[in-house]
Automatic annotation (TrEMBL):
Alphabetized SUPFAM superfamilies for the sequence: Homeodomain-like (SSF46689), Tetracyclin repressor-like, C-terminal domain (SSF48498)
Keyword field contains Manganese: no
PROSITE patterns listed in its UniProt record: HTH_TETR_2 (PS50977)
DNA-binding region(s) from the entry: 40-59
Keyword list, A-Z: DNA-binding, Transcription, Transcription regulation
Coiled coil: none
Protein name listed in UniProt: TetR/AcrR family transcriptional regulator
Amino acid sequence: MTVAEGGKPKRDTYRHGDLRNALIKAGLELAREGGPGAVVLRAATRHAGVVPNAAYRHFADRAALLHAVSQAAMAEAARTMEAEQAALPPAADPVAAARARFRAVGTGYLRFAQEQPGLFRTAFHVPGDMAHAAAETAAGAGGRTPFELLGAALDDLVETGLLPEDRRPGAEFLAWSAVHGLAVLLIDGPLRGLHPTQAQDAGRQVIDMIERGI
C-alpha cells in the first residue's frame, strides 16, 4: 500500500490478476471521452487507483496498453452489432432473415460510430493490419469480432441465394470500406453536422448500394 494525495491509501497491486483488466477498463473510459490520444499509462493507473509503475507489470509501454484497449473497443463494437441483430423481428422467410441480419451488421456499425465516437476511433487506431481481426479479445458476446460478424452475414446471403457464390470472395472488404467511410464522414468529416434522420437515411442508402453492388 502507498499513500496517495490527500492521505488516502492507494493499492499498488490487484489480487488475482485483476490489474490488467482494471487498466483496460480504465483505458476504455479514457478512450470513450477522448479517443486514442487519451489512453496513456499514467491516466489509466490513476483511474484504476494504483501507482504508475504498477502498469508495467502488464504493459510494456503505452502502445501495448493502447493495443489492448483498441481490441476491447472492437469488442464493444461487436456487441452493438449483435444487439442490432438481436433486435430484429422474427422472420419466417430465411431469405428475408439473412438480408435483415446483413443490414443489421451495417446499421449496428454505424450506430456504434455515432454513439461512441471515442471508442470507434480507438478501435481502429491500431493495429495496422488484419492480424487481430479474428482475435478473441475483439469478439462480442457471441464469440465473433465485427469482421467475423460481417463475414457470417455474407455467408448467409450466399446460402440463401441472395449473393452468388462466385461474388463472395472479398465482399467483406467492399462492404466494410463503404460503411466505414460513411461512419468516418459522419463523426469526423463534413457530414458530422447532418440531422440524425439524415444520417440514418444516408446509412440506409449506403447499405442499399452495397446490396446492389456485391
